[in-house]
Design goal:
Shape: globular
Strand order of the largest sheet: 1-2
Number of helices: 18
Radius of gyration: 21 Å
Pfam families: DUF3100
Number of domains: 1
Distance between the termini: 42 Å
Order of helices and strands: HEEHHHHHHHHHHHHHHHHH
Keywords: Membrane, Transmembrane, Transmembrane helix
Number of strands: 2
Strand content: under 5%
Structural class: mainly alpha
Largest sheet: 2 strands, antiparallel
Protein name: DUF3100 domain-containing protein
Oligomer: single chain
InterPro entries: DUF3100
Mean pLDDT: 81
Transmembrane segments: 20-41, 53-72, 92-115, 127-146, 184-205, 212-233, 253-278, 311-331, 337-357, 364-382, 388-410, 422-449
């Protein structure tokens, strides 16, 4: 399979007349309302035995945005979200995700000494996290008849950086883009429940060292890590329960910070290769050429708007401002001078990364450049690294995720027919991918902690 050329901040297609400045202003106002309501709802904890599931504002933003699009035919004309704006929201999603990538890069630089001192077991178990999704999920997806969507759905657990990677490599309107977004949706709604039940069941069997299971719990999602670690710790002594929480947090830190590089340079290429090998063997209709995917109605009727660098800067500034709203409402951090400086640094890292991406001839994805800029800014020894880490550290990375997921939700309705075609199959595939990342990491950590004689 050949991949699409690496995209820039947005597809190079002329914007249609139906999506002018007024339409984009309406879209940003809708996004602000969605973000504000989602952050006002805040974190909702649901008890699950000895653990709990935490539903974050980003989930409410995703659901409200999607609900606006799906309910559009039944809403008053002033509140309808036309397909043209849904397409524009999908185009905004891709560059907006770079803000989240920049925040992760800033976390990586400041945490490098801690990551390097975590030990071999904690280091090598990451291969289980990043390959387990494909090993467990891809064969099942192919057996169920899922086609190229299987690549996006199984190369990772489909968190925000994975959306950025697939969006830049293939575009969010591609089968791979629909697959990773469907995985994100399924994982967000059901992932914490599933991983908590699975982790508790595996822990009760007494086969694994609890610390190996704790490392497996660090899948790169805060809510899923909390649910899995809680289910494991509930079956341990108080002393071991504290160690489980410590190792799960360390594993989750590594998965969150270096996950972009693993998924970009290892997981995704390997999954693309494995799909090409396994699809003719396991896929439905094996032996016959794969039919080209049907174009979505939105894609045929509306072209995605193109954004030059000045427009991209406005998108990043607006998205960062929405993130600061959530940072205030949910995490109680007022947008004082230091917080505003932190937001400006994050936006600046994205702008510099985008410029370097273009100057380098677009040979490396923008996510790599943005991540490297963020890491360099907070690496110990870099001038003013402590001050930069302090300023950007006051902005919670989940607050930046909420406006991004608001745009994702506002773009969902146009792709709903594709999700409906995948149906229950993508839920099964998502569960297998989540099981793979947990069990794969736990198996490798167990080996390093108890190697065979």
């Amino acid at each position: 399979m050949t991949s699409a050329p690496l995209a820039t901040g947005s597809p190079a297609v002329a914007p249609p007349s139906t999506t002018g400045r007024a339409g984009l202003l309406v879209l940003f106002l809708l996004a602000l309302v969605v973000v504000t309501l989602a952050e006002l709802i805040g974190n909702v904890a649901i008890p699950l035995g000895h653990g709990k599931i935490i539903l974050l504002p980003l989930l409410w933003a995703l659901l409200m945005g999607g609900g606006l699009g799906l309910a559009a035919p039944r809403l008053p004309h002033a509140l309808r979200l036309p397909v043209s704006l849904q397409v524009a929201a999908g185009a905004i999603l891709q560059p907006a995700l770079l803000l989240f990538v920049a925040k992760l890069g800033l976390l990586v630089g400041a945490s490098l000494p801690k990551i390097l001192g975590a030990g071999w077991a904690l280091a090598f178990q990451e291969f289980g996290h990043f390959f387990g999704t494909m090993v467990f999920g891809l064969p099942v997806a192919l057996l169920l008849g899922v086609k190229r969507e299987a690549i996006g759905a199984t190369f990772s657990v489909g968190r925000e950086p994975s959306l950025a990677i697939i969006g830049e490599r293939y575009g969010m309107d591609s089968p791979e883009g629909r697959g990773v977004l469907a995985e994100y949706l399924t994982g967000t709604v059901f992932g914490a429940v599933f991983i908590a039940v699975l982790a508790g069941l595996v822990a009760s069997l007494g086969i694994f060292n609890p610390l190996a299971l704790a490392m497996g719990a660090g899948v790169g999602s805060g809510s899923m890590m909390a649910a899995a670690a809680g289910a494991i710790a509930a079956q341990q002594t108080p002393e071991m329960a504290k160690e489980v929480a410590t190792f799960a947090a360390a594993s989750n830190l590594i998965t969150t910070t270096i996950g972009t590089y693993f998924t970009l340079f290892l997981s995704l290429p390997f999954t693309v290769w494995a799909y090409g090998v396994l699809e003719p063997i396991l896929g439905r209709g094996r032996g016959r050429p794969e039919a080209a995917p049907e174009p979505a109605a939105a894609a045929t009727a509306h072209a995605a708007p193109a954004f030059g660098l000045p427009a991209l800067v406005l998108i990043w500034l607006a998205t960062a401002a929405f993130g600061l709203v959530g940072n205030w409402l949910t995490y109680g951090t007022r947008p004082d001078g230091q917080v505003l400086v932190g937001g400006a640094i994050i936006v600046g890292a994205v702008v510099v990364g985008e410029v370097l991406y273009r100057l380098a001839g677009r040979r490396l994805p923008a996510v790599v450049w943005v991540s490297l800029i963020g890491m360099a800014l907070t690496y110990p020894g870099t001038p003013f690294s402590a001050e930069i880490a302090a300023a950007t550290g006051r902005i919670n990375f989940l607050a930046l995720a909420t406006p991004i997921l608001a745009f994702a939700g506002l773009s969902l309705a146009k792709d709903f027919p594709a999700f409906r075609r995948l149906g229950w199959r993508i839920v099964v595939v998502s569960f297998m991918a989540n099981a793979g990342t947990f069990l794969g990491a736990a198996l490798i950590a167990q080996f390093w902690m108890h190697p065979p004689l």
